[in-house]
Specification:
Elements lengths: L24 E4 L3 E4 L10 H16 L10 E4 L3 E5 L4 E5 L14 H16 L4 H7 L6 H4 L5 H8 L7 E4 H5 L17 H4 L1 H4 L7 E3 L6 E6 L10 E6 L6 H9 L4 E3 L4 H6 L5
Antiparallel strand pairs: 1-2, 3-6, 4-5, 7-8, 8-9, 9-10
Helix pairs in contact: 2-5
């Protein structure tokens, strides 16, 4: 991915290498400008600022950092951070709430999320003291029943929802020939976005069609070492040459499998020996 140009807004911190960005808009590549938080620019709440600052401290303590290289974005994805006595770990609640989604939320359903987060956090008794040691003071959000819009707003921007750490390309990036793994969760299905986080480094799942500049995603159909060079097309953007075939296969309840000689299959395994 091309190196970002100077940010159009500034972070509150003066550190040049902040682990968690607070910048709302950046220049990407030569002509594309996009909002890196994945939503319209807004004034961050004090709850979100506190949660993000705590996330930055947590990531700084992780050696190594399993969430990816470079500055991370704090994604509203249902984060539940726990301290197991040795290190910080994050698990995801059964639903995450994007900031803009809060205004249609049912308080009872959000409270069910809170109760799940409270139960999981309670199973690791060192978590709350560790939060407090990091200066996180919004502990009462976890124990306050959610009944009103203000309760929903506080929970949505708390560390129990808003702090899934994702490197910028994986948060709001788009797959391009110059950024083949920039599959942002705000632009692609989550199942596609998760591939770069767990795949082998010599497999190439994302492919950009030169004529349409649209992306397609393939995965192997067989285990490594099987000798099977076929791939399964699991995603194709609208306008991609294979999009219609992918849609037809889905309607028929079938997988679209590409032969080993298909250009996408050959490209996918090109780095493997």
């Amino acid at each position: 991915m091309a190196a970002p140009k100077k940010a159009s807004t500034k972070t509150k911190t003066t550190k040049a290498k902040a682990l968690v960005s607070a910048v709302h808009s950046i220049k990407v590549g030569e002509t594309l400008e996009q909002n890196i938080e994945g939503h319209a620019a807004r004034t961050d709440s004090k709850e979100f600022r506190a949660a993000r600052a705590t996330l930055q401290k947590i990531i700084a303590a992780l050696k190594p950092n399993p969430y990816g290289d470079g500055p991370s974005q704090a994604h509203h994805g249902g984060s539940i951070w726990i301290y197991d006595g040795e290190t910080w770990r994050m698990v995801a609640n059964w639903a995450g709430i994007e900031w803009s989604v809060q205004f249609c939320c049912d308080p009872a359903k959000v409270d069910a999320l809170r109760q799940t987060a409270k139960t999981i956090t309670g199973a690791f008794p060192q978590t709350i003291p560790q939060f407090e040691a990091l200066g996180y003071d919004d502990i009462d959000i976890l124990t306050t029943p959610i009944a009103e819009p203000v309760d929903i707003a506080r929970y949505v921007d708390s560390i129990w929802n808003s702090c899934v750490p994702i490197p910028l390309p994986g948060h709001t990036g788009r797959v391009r020939s110059t950024s083949p793994l920039a599959a942002g969760v705000h632009n692609y299905p989550e199942t596609m976005c998760a591939i770069p986080r767990v795949m082998r480094s010599d497999f190439i799942p994302f492919h950009v069609d030169a004529a349409t500049r649209t992306a397609a995603v393939v995965v192997p159909v067989a285990p490594r070492g099987s000798g099977d060079g076929r791939t399964r097309l699991v995603f194709a953007e609208r306008g991609h040459p294979l999009a219609a075939k992918k849609a037809a296969a889905k309607r028929a309840g079938k997988a679209l499998v590409l032969s080993a000689d298909n250009p996408l299959s050959r490209q996918a395994f090109a780095k493997q020996r």
